[in-house]
Each structure stands twice: as structure tokens, then as C-alpha cells.
Specification:
globular, alpha+beta, Aspartate Aminotransferase, domain 1
């Protein structure tokens, strides 16, 4: 699902794609990730066609950053499991 990660400083863009070969934007998948993360307390922003924008405050502490990354990882996994059930 992740086609590219780019950014500067703490502002990071994670491009969500249908597959890595075509790199076709996956707008609906990106929105599902945003909604899943929001349900668990993490506010993400969509940018462009299919990018997740991560913009933590510059004063974020390591514990809060880890918690946010855990929620993001769980959201990615949950959406991926819906798309490709095992």
C-alpha cells in the first residue's frame, strides 16, 4: 500500500498506492486509513490524491510519537486485512 515516503523535518507524506508497480493513487484506501486511525485517537490529514500527511508538533515527546506510530501501524494493518483477507 505504501508507494513512497517523503518529507522534511517532522512533516512526512506517506503515499498510498494500489500497487507499487503502477503506483496508481489509492484515494479510498487512504481515506479508510485516516478513518481507522481517527477511531483510535490519531488525527491524520489527507493531502493530494492519496497521501497521508503526518504533522506532529515540534515539541512531541518520544512516548507520544511511539503511541501515534503504533496507532498508524494498526490502522494500516486493519485496512490491509480488509483489502486482502488471509
Amino acid at each position: 500500500m505504501i508507494g513512497d515516503v517523503r518529507g522534511q523535518g517532522l512533516m512526512i507524506g506517506v503515499e498510498i498506492v494500489e500497487d507499487r508497480d503502477s503506483r496508481a493513487p489509492a484515494h479510498d484506501v487512504r481515506d479508510a486509513i485516516v478513518n481507522q486511525a481517527f477511531e483510535h485517537g490519531l488525527l491524520l490529514l489527507g493531502a493530494g490524491e492519496s497521501v497521508l500527511r503526518l504533522m506532529p508538533p515540534l515539541i512531541i515527546d518520544p512516548t507520544t510519537a511511539e503511541e501515534a506510530l503504533d496507532i498508524l501501524e494498526n490502522a494500516l494493518t486493519a485496512v490491509e486485512n480488509v483489502l486482502t483477507p488471509h
